[in-house]
Amino acid sequence: MTIDWIALLQVAIVTIVAAVAIVGLMSLANWLLGPVGAESPPSAGRRLTGQVLIVVMALIILGGLYLIVHEHVARLLGFG
C-alpha cells in the first residue's frame, strides 16, 4: 500500500482554503447583518449583501458535500 502524498497535500490545502473561506464569509455576513452604530438596523444594501454571502457559503458547503457523496448517491439510485 502506498500513499499518494501529492494528492493528500492537495486535499489538505483545499480543505484549509475552504474552511477559511467559509468562516470568513460567515464572519463578513454576520458583520453586515448586525446592528450598525446605536442599535439601528442595517441598510437594505448591507442586508442584501449579507444574505448573498450566506447563500454563497451554503453553495460552497453543498458543492463540497456533492463531491464527497455523488458517486454513492448515483449508485444507490441506479445511475452508476
Order of helices and strands: HH
Alpha-beta classification: mainly alpha
From the alpha-carbon coordinates, what is the Rg to the nearest angstrom?
Answer: 19 Å
- Please indicate the percent range of residues in DSSP E strands (runs of 2 or more): under 5%
Number of strands: 0
Helix content: over 70%
Oligomer state of the chains in this structure: single chain
Distance between the termini: 27 Å
Mean pLDDT: 89
User: What spatial form do the alpha-carbon principal axes imply?
Assistant: elongated
Residue stretches low in confidence (pLDDT < 50, at least 5 long) are none
What is the number of helical segments per DSSP (H or I, 4+ residues)? 2
**Largest sheet report:** none
Question: Can you walk me through this structure?
Answer:
The chain is mostly helical. The chain has a domain at 44-80. It contains 2 helices and no strands. The chain has helices spanning 5-33, 44-77. Helix 1 (5-33) runs antiparallel to helix 2 (44-77). The chain is elongated and about 60 Å long. The model has no long low-confidence stretch (mean pLDDT 89).
Outline the secondary-structure elements.
Blueprint lengths: L4 H29 L10 H34 L3
Helix pairs in contact: 1-2
What characteristics describe this protein?
80 residues, mainly alpha, elongated, 79% helix
Task: Give a short overview.
With 80 residues, the protein is mainly alpha-helical. Helices cover 79% and strands 0% of the residues.
